[in-house]
Amino acid sequence: MLGLTSPAVAAGAAKAPVKTATTSVTTAPTLASRLAAVQTAKQINYYPSTAGWSRMWSNFDTAKIDADLAKADALGATSVRAIIFPHTFGYPTPKAEYTARLANFVTMAAARGLSVKFTLFDWWGGYTDVTGSTAWATAILKPYRNDPRVISVELQNEFNPTNTAAVAWAQKIVPAVRAVAPTMPLTFSVDGQSGAAGMAQIKTALAATPLNYYDFHFYGNSERALSVIGKAKATVAPSPMVIGEVGLSTLQYTEGEQAAFLARVFRAAEVAGVRSVSPWTLTDFASGSIPESNVAKLPAQYYYGLYRTNGSAKPAAAVVKAGFTGTAMPANLLDNSFEAAAGQTPWRAFMPELGLAVKTQSAVRTGKWSVSLTNTGKTSAGSPSYRVAPIAPVQPGQTWRGEVWARGNAATGASQIALSWFDANDKWLGGVSSAALPAGTTNWTRLVVTGVAPANSASIQIHLKSGDNKGTVWFDDVAMSVS
């Protein structure tokens, strides 16, 4: 059972380390060394599954936290983010029991080989109190200013650059914190809705006291992640940029879609030259574990984890491990033969009102499953289909190839594999389709489509479509490639 941990227990409850780590300060870090660590950090965003947000600190459970840090270590993480709440810790003077818990967290992370990024001033709006803000930040940071276990400070999570009071506060707090910890890289994060424009606004507002790096949160359409990430990076260049949060809730999407989403972002970031991608979050949250707030009122927030609340891994955990360790992504991540368990495919229905793709065992080419479309319609807007986006990001001028095996029973209309391209604003740029499966009853037939991505392409989708079909068509064994 969770409960308040006394300062004495909190100060000494770290478990035995599982790999070599720096648990005492021997060499003072430099700004350059810390900034280098920031840019390559394999960082995980973290709260315990049973104590989200401020409750991580008020219900500080060393055993649970240490077990979770071990799980992050096993994923290949090298760093963990600690989000700190002024009014939980005590403001403007932090309470000793809470600074002891923070010190214990840093020690436990180091014992697992993880550095720590601090996020200050979360759930904060006291922008007129610069004096109190400075005193509080100084008290939190002073013990770590020369501690290599702490690699950076995010001054506020998802800062609003259109809030004039917040900007005026930021212009004062940056130099104040820099004076306390001159070798500590400083940043603000920007949410995905603000995007590159928000990054530009912060950069302009803080031109006199520039940040050391920029922190971008990505929750948009992963199919066009390369375009979004590349634009954000170019906006703040030559300053470094990291992706400090990225995730997809499995309340609204399948676990297969979550895994593919993260794989696309890791791959897009690699192509864009962004080397640090931090998933949100390690685990799902148990019911009621998020404190009463606007966040708690958003049910999707409970399901961003790489692990379920029972501790079992979602498919996304293997994706993140591959991304962190630089190894190959899980085989058949896109479920090309439709063998994935229920809820673990990234494929989605398109125009299901005209015909819904159904996973079936009634006819298969390989394995145990295929998908079928029966008695479909067709309109001027298109035909119903089953669609997915590849993991590799699209770039203009690339030649893409898709193939699928199809079989018909009294089929009519047109059953094909098709490619569709879209720009950064999700505007359809065009597409290309294979030859149609012959009408009537046919054996397994390979359908092939190739096309060149047009100018301004930011995403691509593969569609298995069947329109105006009074019979049934089955699809199996999809293959995709790009050159």
TrEMBL record:
It comes from the Bacteria. This is Cellulase (Glycosyl hydrolase family 5). The lineage of its organism: Bacteria, Bacillati, Actinomycetota, Actinomycetes, Micromonosporales.
